[in-house]
Write a structure and sequence with these properties.
With 123 residues, the protein is mostly helical. Helices cover 43% and strands 0% of the residues. It starts with 9 loop residues before the first helix and ends in a 42-residue tail after the last helix. InterPro entries: Cro/C1-type_HTH, Lambda_DNA-bd_dom_sf.
Length: 123
């Protein structure tokens, strides 16, 4: 006898999605892992069923969930929309530690587009 998962109610789904969002935003989970958790914990669907809902092959969904392959942003957006989510920017480091100022002028910078010439080495 298998254990039957009950479908979460609206409030439970909201809490599950919030937890998955936090896990992804904090960097603890990859996008693929987060999508897999959304599929399993929110819908309870197997890969074949969910892939069909998203107009994807099962293999394509598997590759997304395992962070393999190279899905388009449109594909990721279509999956996330099923859960009321969108793809967005998340700070990888605290914004207060990001420096957007010009580098100091005493730092030697290569000329843009210039290729340094190789020095002739005599043999």
């Amino acid at each position: 006898m298998g254990v039957e998962m009950s479908t979460p109610n609206s409030e439970q789904r909201k809490q599950i999605i919030e937890g998955i969002m936090q896990g992804h935003a904090s960097g603890r989970e990859t996008l693929g892992t987060s999508i897999r958790r959304l599929r399993l914990e929110v819908t309870g669907f197997d890969q074949a069923t969910f892939a069909a809902m998203c107009n994807l092959s099962t293999k394509a969904l598997y590759q997304i969930e395992t962070d393999k392959g190279n899905p388009t942003l449109g594909t990721i957006e279509a999956i996330l929309r099923k859960f009321g989510l969108r793809l967005g920017l998340v700070a990888g480091i605290p914004a207060s530690s990001v420096s957007l100022r010009e580098p100091s002028s005493d730092v030697a910078r290569p000329v843009r587009g210039a290729n340094p010439r190789r020095k002739h080495v005599e043999r």
